[in-house]
């Protein structure tokens, strides 16, 4: 059971853009890592774009399960995990992250924000905390 990506996005007009993301690509071959990370960023944006405000969904993409939660204020979170990772845990994590993000980052910064301009550093910690260590 593994988490690969945790992203916070903003679903505004006309498109979705990434505000902050964390990735764990350590299980991939060194030469594949950047393309895997690119795929996860693209997939996260696409899924958030296709989801309605106020909705939750789980979408299978290749060998991954992508869990998306788009709040009614346009803030969205996407977790990309393997097929065995519990769906309920993913949505609990998304709830927690989006709630904390909305408290720490001003709503005025969401429409124009980018990973370089948004200061929110908790994603890497959540990604490693929610990894399930297999014995």
TrEMBL record:
Lipid bilayer topology: Lipid-anchor
Molecular functions (GO terms): SNAP receptor activity
Signal sequence interval, chain numbering: none
Similarity comment text for this entry: Belongs to the synaptobrevin family.
Protein name from the UniProt record: YKT6B protein
Localization annotation: Endomembrane system
Matches recorded under Gene3D superfamilies: Longin domain
GO CC annotations, alphabetized: Golgi apparatus
Domain Longin stretches: 8-127
InterPro entries reported for this sequence: Longin-like_dom_sf, Longin_dom
This protein's encoding gene: Ykt6b
Organism per entry: Loxia leucoptera (White-winged crossbill)
Main location: membrane
Keywords, comma-separated and alphabetical: Lipoprotein, Membrane, Methylation, Palmitate, Prenylation, Protein transport, Transport
Domain of life: Eukaryota
GO process terms (BP): endoplasmic reticulum to Golgi vesicle-mediated transport; protein transport
